[in-house]
Amino acid sequence: MNFSIENLNVNSKDQKEILKDFSLTVKPGEVHVIMGPNGTGKSTLSKVIMGSNDYIVHHGDIKINQESILSLDTCERSRKGIFLAMQSPISIEGVTNSEFLRTALSSKQGSNVGIYPFIQMMETAMKDLKMDDSMMHRSINQDFSGGERKKNEILQMKILKPNFIILDELDSGLDVDSLKIVCDNIQQYLKENPTTSVLIITHYTRILDYLHPDFVHIMEKGKIVKTGDFTLAKQIEKNGFSCVIEVSEDNVNE
Amino acid sequence: MNKILMNNEKNLFSEQEKIEFSKNDTLLMEMDHIQKQFFLVVLDNVCVTLNFLAYDVDFSFHIKLGKNSHLTINALFIEGSFHIDTSLEGESANFSCNYSMIAGKDSHNTIEVYHHQSNTISHLRNHGFSINKSAIVLDVSSTIFKDASKCISHQDNQIIEQQNSLSQINPNLYIDNYDVDASHSAYVGEFKENELFYLMSRGISMKDAKYLLLKAFLLGNLSLETDMKEKYEKKLTDFLSKEV
């Protein structure tokens, strides 16, 4: 999938400017990273790509294979192959993981997925992620630890098989061992689906030790101000954002 | 499990009926298009579960619970109205009322509980879903009398609206004793935006996302065994396929 964002300007509902002339191009199979201080609009970007109603796009475009997706609602964007692993996945009481994912997969495929092949698929994916089988029948993220919630996001990714993956602060809430398990699963997925692209949003570089980026972008005040390779991320890890940008107090909110 | 079926054509009971439970039991009552008044007594040390599945009924229930007795009600009402008053007359009586209702027509419901004795417990969980602009009213009152100490009384009342309607919740706590644990909550509004966004971000349409949330809201409120849950779900799905 060729994914592009062109001169995107986004406001919050209360008219606060969040993204300003934001542009980004991601080609099939590429791994991009967006880093930046708190409040620069990184998480907002992920939600805007996914079609959140909390934000208003008043200029610019988001395209998949040269076609605008701005008029598509959230579920249509997902069916086009975009997947957002959320920073803070919510819990939904009463809707079980299996019911939710089977409905999602059926929606994506356009026909009902049989219960037995689905359970087999779930069991295999959960085993890969070292998740307890009982989580299949529990309410979405209900009483899950922070790490379990993140694993649950990647479980959904494995089942829904997207071709453009956004990982928003995936490493927060994950211990060292869990981060390795999750990243191993993503790596394996990318190996099996080499044209899938990834957009990683992170503050820290530890996730990049597992998922090596092709491009590292630094974001400030709602737009990309610097682009480099993995060495740029290492430079930030060592010296902080102040070595590449002027970090100010008046960053717009995420 | 015992089962009672009632409809407007075949009715084994008179208009006012009394049921007394002297031993532990689980009872399923399926009702269709009736207007009925029931008096129910649960004797000391008896544990009873009542499962109601009702379509378009106007139902009144007057309940008395004895010492150390335990009554759980799991009621799904599709259309109609529900009126229940429960007196906790024996010490340590325990009452759980899990009431879910879906209405395409206006519906007025009253749920009242009276703590007459010490150490009595009540949990009232009332969930309503109003279709189109139908108005659901939930009048929910918990009364703890002066001589009843160390009582526990909690209310959780929610109405989800498909469109803005005149639905309302009137949650009341009348407490005349200083040593109690009591709370009430009330929510009237639409489905939560962040829940819809999460489900839709996985490719689920708005309609299917709302259906998943509705099912969770109404059936998740009830403490049902799997086979019973399937029965309730079928009734709900049949209704929704026609109405929504």
Question: Helix and strand layout, with pairings?
Answer:
The complex is a heterodimer of chains A (254) and B (244).
Chain A: E1 3-12, E2 17-26, E3 31-35, H1 42-50, E4 55-64, E5 67-68, H2 74-79, E6 82-85, E7 92-96, H3 97-109, H4 115-128, E8 139-140, H5 146-160, E9 164-168, H6 176-192, E10 197-201, E11 215-220, E12 223-228, H7 230-239
Parallel strand pairs in A: 3-10, 3-11, 6-9, 9-10
Antiparallel strand pairs in A: 1-2, 1-4, 4-5, 7-8, 11-12
Chain B: E1 2-7, E2 16-21, E3 25-32, E4 35-42, E5 47-65, E6 70-88, E7 94-103, E8 107-115, E9 121-130, E10 136-144, E11 151-161, E12 168-175, E13 180-189, H1 193-200, H2 206-219, H3 226-243
Parallel strand pairs in B: 1-3, 2-4, 3-5, 4-5, 5-6, 6-7, 6-8, 7-9, 8-10, 9-11, 10-12, 11-13
How is this structure best described in words?
The complex is a heterodimer of chains A (254) and B (244). Chain A is an alpha/beta fold and 254 residues long. Chain A has one domain: P-loop containing nucleotide triphosphate hydrolases (Rossmann fold). In chain A, a hairpin with a 2-residue loop joins strand 11 (215-220) and strand 12. In chain A, the strands form three sheets. A six-stranded mixed β-sheet of chain A has the order 6-9-10-3-11-12, sandwiched between helices. Chain A has helices spanning 42-50, 74-79, 97-109, 115-128, 146-160, 176-192, 230-239; strands at 3-12, 17-26, 31-35, 55-64, 67-68, 82-85, 92-96, 139-140, 164-168, 197-201, 215-220, 223-228. By secondary structure, chain B is an alpha/beta fold. Chain B has one domain. In chain B, 16% of the residues lie in helices and 55% in strands. Chain B has three helices and 13 strands; from the N terminus they run E-E-E-E-E-E-E-E-E-E-E-E-E-H-H-H. In chain B, helix 1 packs across helix 2. At the A-B interface, helix 2, strand 7, helix 3 and strand 8 of A face helix 1 and helix 2 of B.
